Amino acid sequence: MFTGLVSDVGTVVEVSDHQGSLRHIKIASAYDPASIPMGASIACSGPCLTVVAIEPREGGGCVFAVDAAAETLARTTVGAWQAGTRVNLERSLKIGDELGGHIVSGHVDGVAEIVARDDVTGEGAWGATARFTIRMPAQLARFVAEKGSVALDGTSLTVNTVEKDLFTVFLIPHTLAVTTWGTLKAGDRLNLEVDLMARYAARLAEAREQGY
User: Fold this and answer.
1) Would residue 50 show up in a list of annotated catalytic residues for this protein?
2) How many domains is the chain built from?
3) 62-91, pLDDT tens digit by residue?
4) Is residue 105 part of a domain?
5) Does residue 177 form part of some domain?
6) Closest to 152 (Cα-Cα) out of 202, 102, 81
7) pTM of the predicted structure, to 2 decimals
8) In this predicted model, what pLDDT tens digit does every residue of 40-54 receive, in sequence order?
9) Which domain holds residue 29?
């Protein structure tokens, strides 16, 4: 499980096909290699991926490798990653960790697209802020509510407005600075995970309607 609070921005350094249906991806990170056991789960711009190899990086940090299966490649943006792609990283929760965002499973529901980015220039100590208008897959619209939570590329965000299959989120200067959001623009695609509670609430309502 995760919280949607990004703890590092990694960079894809190598992508290769592995054992036919797997995509082998190496990611450079500032994480201490001694703190990452084999088999650890790391959220990489949304999807929860398993570490299959890790090595120290010259100058500090590490390069860890993950394998993405066909289902992940088909349902997320992972299939489009290449050397140089920047990814939001989050280590899995440990007992006692602060739950600062919202409960995120790392299971992507669909791919959304940025329709517009509106920047607002800050003054003084405040940097630039930005409002993003995002189009989600129509079948996921019932799970996204005003003032509710979503995870976009692994980042926990609050929904500002919703209209049909469009919703908006507002990014503060800190988030723009410490995640990949600072460079995102209209046309970019995002991994979307809807709020876990919304998903279960909808399923309970559906089951009730069907008499289960």
Assistant:
1) yes
2) 2
3) 999 999 999 999 999 999 999 999 999 999
4) no
5) yes
6) 102
7) 0.91
8) 999 999 999 999 999
9) 8-91
